[in-house]
Amino acid sequence: MAGRYAPKTVLAHLIQRRNQTYSEIVAEFVELGGTITERHLRRLASGERAGTTPQTRRTLQRMFGKPVEELLAPYVAEQAAQVVPAPAASGRITTGNEMEVLDMAASRARAFALAAQSGLGSEAMEQVYDDVRHAAQAYPQRPLPEILGQLVETQDLVFGLLESRQRPENHRQLYFLAGVTGGLLAKASHDLGNPHAALTQARTAFLCADNADHHGLRAWVRGLQSLVSYWAGNPHDSVRYAQLGAGYAEQANSTTSVWLPVSEARAWAALGNPEATRAALERAEEAWNSVRNDDLDDMGGLCTFGRNRQLYYAADALAWLPGEVEQAQRYSSQAVDAYTDQNHPEWAFGDAAGSHAAMAITRIASGELDGAADALAPVLTLPTERRINGVVHSARRVHQALRQSGRAEDARELQEEIEVFTRTPMQTYPR
Predict the structure, then answer these.
(1) Cβ distance 49 to 40 under 8 Å?
(2) Collapsed DSSP state (helix, strand, coil) of residue 270
(3) In a domain, 362, yes or no
(4) Alpha-carbon distance 309 to 346, whole Å?
(5) Are residues 239 and 136 in the same domain?
(6) Domain interval for residue 205
(7) Alpha-carbon span 178 to 166, nearest angstrom
(8) Cβ of 277: how many Cβ atoms within 10 Å?
(9) For 175-191, what is each residue's pLDDT tens digit?
(10) Total domains in the fold of the chain
(11) Is 83 a member of any domain?
(12) The pTM is what?
């Protein structure tokens, strides 16, 4: 039975009234199709955490008969009302909701498999791997609001498993998965324009990489730190992080050995150093000769670095340098072509948008204002849920290039379109 402490939230009060333990509440939650850990539920009830996924909000409302905003509100005894938990939905399957029903069933099966074991067995470990792999592969291609909640819950699950008593042989694997989920959340924090939270997640991810003793993961996290610093307007830090990861990448021989030098290249370009930029781009190309995929690359998606992303990064770097217009045009054209096929495994909406922005900048440098507008058009039509931080900054770079071109008045309409676009960045689900 839940302890009779003074409840801090309405949710905690209602759990007390039910005379159930938190594990019993979690079991009922799962039966209704939701997925939640006991640790997550306790943090919600204590008021320590307010973030929930749409699925979690729907299930909590079905269990307790109140919107989640009311459930997580501070509890005031004299205002408490008698609440009869809402009955569970009939589960009737109608045309159009089959996939949602199947997702709920999969979540139920996943939660049962993990809860049914005192120690993490091979099947349960495979399930956790699959959850993290799915998030890594979905991240570059789906809008962040669609996957953020599940990503947060996956991190919470992995942390909870690490904090519980597990077999020693599972610790290294779990730290590896914790590092990956932390890295994905670092990218999510960056995409939402919060570099402080991004670097905090990255530091914890690097700690997990150390505990997993995984060189490829260490190098990958350094790459994320370089990325965050670059877009935050700190190119010196971006260079430093890329160089810090170089030794780990060399030992791993994974695709991070390409990502780190090409990341360093665009930071040097932002600093106006063409020699260092070209040297870093050459190192990135040479690195392909020794690349062999590791288990992090095998995760796919954001966890690996392919040729398409290399083209985009090179175009983004060279677009900074007035003396590299011809090379920048060649790389940006190749990058735009590489991202035309949205069914390609390497397709990523953010990198596709960045490639178009780099092409627009090179066309401005060549005096092709109409061509720049054509290049940027696919970016300016992106829906708000895909206007991540890097995309917005790329559009602002085009605006800056127009101002510096000496022909700003001729491109006034395009500048105004960019200003409207950047005023409405991505928003996540309401909390």
Answers:
(1) yes
(2) helix
(3) yes
(4) 8
(5) yes
(6) 120-252
(7) 15
(8) 24
(9) 999 999 999 999 999 99
(10) 3
(11) no
(12) 0.74
Give the confidence band of 252 by pLDDT, cuts at 50, 70, 90: very high
Six-digit token string for 167: 């077999």
Name the 3-class secondary structure at 348: coil
In the DSSP assignment, the letter for residue 1 is -
Token pair recorded at residue 205:
């991810």
Most confident of 120-129, 225-234, 341-350: 225-234
Q: What is the length of the chain?
A: 431
Cα atoms in the 13 Å half-sphere on the side-chain side of 334: 16
pLDDT tens digits for range 54-103: 667 778 887 888 888 888 888 876 444 444 343 344 444 444 444 455 55
133-156 pLDDT tens trace: 999 999 999 999 888 888 888 888
CATH number assigned to the domain comprising residue 319: 1.25.40
Buried b (16+ CB within 10 A) or exposed e, 366-391: eeebeebbebbebbbebeeebbbbbb
Report residue 11 as tokens: 């949710």
State the amino acid at position 108 in one-letter form. Answer: R
Say whether 366 sits in a helix, a strand or coil: coil
Amino acid at 43: R
